[in-house]
Specification:
Radius of gyration of chain A: 24 Å
CATH class of the largest domain in chain A: Mainly Beta
Distance between the termini of chain A: 24 Å
CATH architecture of one domain in chain B: Up-down Bundle
Helix content of chain B: 55-70%
Oligomer: heterodimer
Shape of chain B: globular
Shape of chain A: elongated
CATH architecture of the largest domain in chain A: Sandwich
Number of strands of chain B: 2
CATH superfamily of the largest domain in chain A: Cupredoxins -  blue copper proteins
CATH superfamily of one domain in chain B: Cytochrome c oxidase-like, subunit I domain
Strand content of chain A: 25-35%
Largest interface: A-B, 92 and 104 residues
Chain lengths: 175, 649
């Protein structure tokens, strides 16, 4: 699992546990019904709840906005790899090979339909990075491989009957 | 309150919608079982394109044809229940919407299952025109037309809803201006009581989400209708290609709000039914009207969160996507406030726990689960880890089945007696159905979340083998989930047939268990078991048929006797087909194949080509050229080599 996936797993698990506890509490509360009418109080507190939710979302926005992958730069000392997606193959064009440790600028395009460039470690490994591939346009993805070895490209946008066979492998050499 | 005639009209409408959508659930649910089965069991594997065609039918069928159509139908009865009769123009629209949806779904079934259209329900342009020989222009044209009918069904439904919610008498509205009355229906009377004056009090809460979605789905659907018309014209050869990135934006311009075509009418039903079971009015402050006003605007301005990972160089897409993250977050507000309101409506009330109200309660839990995973998807920096993985599939199944689906089941159990005048056949059977659907559904869809976090790609007919274990664990659970739905069908059928006598209601209008207590009585148990067995047998039979069809047709994994074994060279005619279907032409130029690719070397007149070189390059790849050795057989590659040698001269 990638680091982001681990963060999601932990956060979602905590949220689900809290949500379930609240649901069970509401369910059990109906065993001891209230006779007085507190609807007015609860209705007024709904505004407070609104503020809590807005603040939580604002915190999430601020906490994640700096990790948005748009407009990445590989710097001057980059390795350029051109990738072309077609139904149902990837052409990974790296004439000089790919080395670990130096930023790689993937320039990715498609000649037919939309594809998804999903970068995985080999052999049922983890999803490192992904980006959509739009026909006739170039998408830029910057990634620095930390380890040498075999990597896989899986198609992550549905592209037709052999979508699941659209897999390519390439080697990354030591730095 | 409205008169008996108007109630009879609404009753008939709702029963028609529920009847058709329940039948669609049966078909599309079975397709879903076969899809997972095919992934889990190699022997049950269906042909690749057929799998994707079934996926297309399952997606559109279950999401729009079942869940969407069912809540669209429930809306007529909810509106009647809060005093809004459907009549005149609104009634004409309501009836037209039913026919358009039924014809549209039928068209989708025919074009996918019979004509092989398998471009998925998002039919991401220009994929419909790149069928790899699996489907042609006719299928694309008919499919686009069928989806257009479903889209028009949604638009006509919206007009019917807007006509109904703007009803002046029902609103007790002072104004004769229809736009001001729509403002009243949107709940603005809570915020600005003078401008949007009503008498004696603001609009019932259940009306607000329906007014919101009635406006939004018209705005959302019309551009998609334009794209569909374009696809129809292009399949007839009358127009050229459309802009791909624009088409993607138009698709999601519709694709996001259509989710709320399910959610908002469901919220209206929650607002109306939960207070009945709680025995108190909905706990809600005026602030809820603010949230719905945010919703009516934000709903049509968040489409780009489905294409967060599209940001081609030299376009504005990255800026659009970034702007839409906070917009998407704002859509959390109506859900968060509604869950607060509904939660406090139940909290320490004299809540009457029946199968119906339990399903509604579980539906609220499903809403929370789907909402939380939705917040992950809405956050660009987190979406990169789960986009187009099975996490998304888990997310929207939580949404569609455990929120909307349980609301539909709960509303059906709660309302069928008052809609038909007949008592629910078996309360016990309903208990088993509701609990099983929630618990087993949580597991089945939760396993998708787990697989997705592990990077399992979405929309793969055959998953990478590292995900096999969890796929196989989920399969028996899928069967149990399907068998539980058989109990629902049987229960509804027996209820409609009047097997449990006349319905009676308590002082809150909640249906009472049938007289004579047909709980887990023998006929009910037997009937359920029989139906479950028949359902399973049918599923096995269908899968057997599909496997047989694929292997018998020579298109599957069974290798035919080698006809060319005596000859050293391959079959050039077969090679030509393989050249096209393997996508060689995308990179290479070969005039004979109509290929003009510029990525790799041109093959026309290429003097270096020998049979051995072609076989070696195709098998092992080199440089940018991918290796095909793992997806084409040796014989296939011989055939391609024979063709390329012959055609390049």
């Amino acid at each position: 699992m990638s680091q982001t996936a681990i963060i999601i797993t932990v956060a979602y698990a905590i949220a689900v546990v809290i949500g379930s506890a609240i649901a069970i509490a509401i369910w059990r509360s109906t065993k001891r019904p209230l006779d007085e009418d507190r609807a007015g109080t609860w209705s007024r507190r709904e505004s407070a709840w609104l503020i809590v939710v807005v603040l939580a979302l604002f915190a999430l926005l601020l906490g994640t906005i700096f990790y948005v992958p748009y407009g990445e730069s590989a710097g001057a000392n980059k390795q350029v790899v051109r990738v072309t997606g077609v139904q149902y193959a990837w052409a990974v064009d790296a004439p000089a090979g790919i080395r670990a440790g130096t930023p790689v600028e993937f320039l990715i395009t498609s000649t037919d339909v939309n594809h998804g460039f999903g970068l995985y470690t080999a052999g049922g490994g983890k999803l490192l990075r992904q980006i959509q591939v739009v026909p006739g346009r170039t998408q830029t993805l910057v990634h620095t491989f930390t380890k040498a070895g075999t990597y896989e490209v899986l198609c992550l946008e549905f592209c037709g009957a052999k979508h699941h066979e659209m897999v390519a492998t390439f080697e990354v050499k030591p730095a | 309150m409205i008169d008996d005639g108007a109630r009879a009209v609404a009753r008939r409408l709702t029963l028609q919608y529920l009847g058709a959508s329940t039948a669609i659930l049966a078909v599309s649910g079975l397709l879903g079982v076969v899809l997972r089965w095919s992934q889990a069991v190699p022997q049950a594997r269906v042909g690749d394109n057929f799998w994707y065609a079934m996926m297309t039918a399952h997606g559109l069928g279950a999401f729009v044809g079942w869940a969407g159509f069912a809540v669209m139908g429930l809306s007529w009865w909810v509106l009647a229940g809060v005093g809004f009769p459907t009549r005149g123009f609104g009634l004409v629209m309501a009836r037209a919407s039913w026919w358009l949806m039924v014809l549209g779904v039928a068209g989708v079934v025919v074009t996918t299952l019979l004509m092989g259209f398998g471009a998925s329900w998002v039919f991401l342009y220009p994929l419909p025109f790149f069928g790899s020989g699996e489907w042609g222009a006719w299928a694309t044209g008919f499919f686009s037309f069928s989806v257009l009918l479903a889209g028009l069904s949604i638009v006509t439904w919206c007009f019917g809803i807007l006509h109904t919610v703007a009803n002046r008498e029902a609103l007790h509205a002072v104004s004769t201006n229809v736009f001001r009355r729509l403002g009243v229906s949107l709940g603005w009377g809570y915020l600005m009581p003078r401008t949007f004056a009503t008498n004696p009090k603001p609009v019932p809460y259940a009306v607000i989400p329906l007014a919101v979605i009635g406006i939004d789905m018209i705005i959302a659907t019309l551009p998609l209708a334009g794209l569909l018309v374009w696809q129809i014209l292009e399949s007839a050869g009358w127009v050229g290609s459309a802009d791909i990135l624009l088409a993607k934006n138009i698709l999601w311009w519709f694709g996001h709000p259509v989710v709320y075509l399910l959610l908002f009418p469901a919220v209206a039903a929650y607002y109306w039914l939960i207070p009945r079971y709680a025995g108190r009015e909905l706990v809600a402050g005026h602030v809820i009207a603010i949230a719905w006003t945010v919703a009516v605007i934000a709903n049509v301005l968040v489409w780009a969160h489905h294409i967060y990972l599209d940001y081609p160089d030299g376009t504005l897409q990255a800026q659009i996507n970034t702007a839409m993250q906070p917009m998407t977050f704002s859509l959390v507000l109506p859900s968060a406030l509604s869950l607060y309101s509904l939660g406090f409506t139940i909290y320490r009330s004299r809540f009457r726990w029946t199968p119906a109200s339990t399903a509604l309660f579980f539906g609220l839990v499903g809403w929370l689960l789907a909402g939380l995973s939705g917040v992950v998807n809405a956050t660009i920096a987190l979406d990169v880890a789960v986009h187009n993985t099975l996490w998304i599939v888990g997310h929207f199944h939580h949404m569609a089945m455990l929120n909307i689906g349980l609301l539909i089941f709960g509303a059906t159990y709660a309302l069928l007696p008052e809609l038909t005048g007949k008592a629910l056949y078996s309360e016990r059977m309903a208990w088993v159905h509701v609990w099983t659907t929630f618990v087993v559904g949580m597991l089945v869809f939760g396993l998708w979340l787990v697989q997705g976090l592990d990077g399992a790609p979405r929309r793969w007919s055959v998953l990478p083998s590292s995900y096999d274990t969890i796929t196989r664990i989920s399969l028996p659970l899928v069967f149990v989930l399907a068998a539980a739905q058989a109990l629902f069908f049987w229960n509804v059928l027996q209820t409609v047939r009047g097997k449990a006598g006349v319905a009676t209601f308590d002082e809150r209008g909640i249906p009472e268990p049938a007289k004579g207590g047909r709980g887990w009585s023998a006929p009910a148990a037997e009937g359920g078991l029989v139906l479950a067995a028949v359902g399973l047998a049918l599923a096995f039979a269908a899968a057997g048929y599909l496997v047989g069809r694929e292997t018998g047709g020579g298109g599957g994994t069974v290798t035919q006797p080698t006809e060319t074994s005596g000859s050293a060279t391959g079959d050039a005619a077969r090679g030509k087909e393989l050249f096209a279907s393997s996508g060689c032409g995308a990179c290479h130029t070969l005039a004979d194949a109509g290929a003009a690719g510029q990525v790799g070397p041109s093959l026309d007149g290429n003097a270096r080509l020998t049979e051995a070189l072609i076989v070696a390059r195709v098998t092992n790849g080199q440089g940018a050229m991918p290796a095909f050795g793992d997806r084409l057989s040796e014989e296939d590659i011989q055939d391609v080599a024979a063709y390329v040698l012959q055609a390049s001269k």
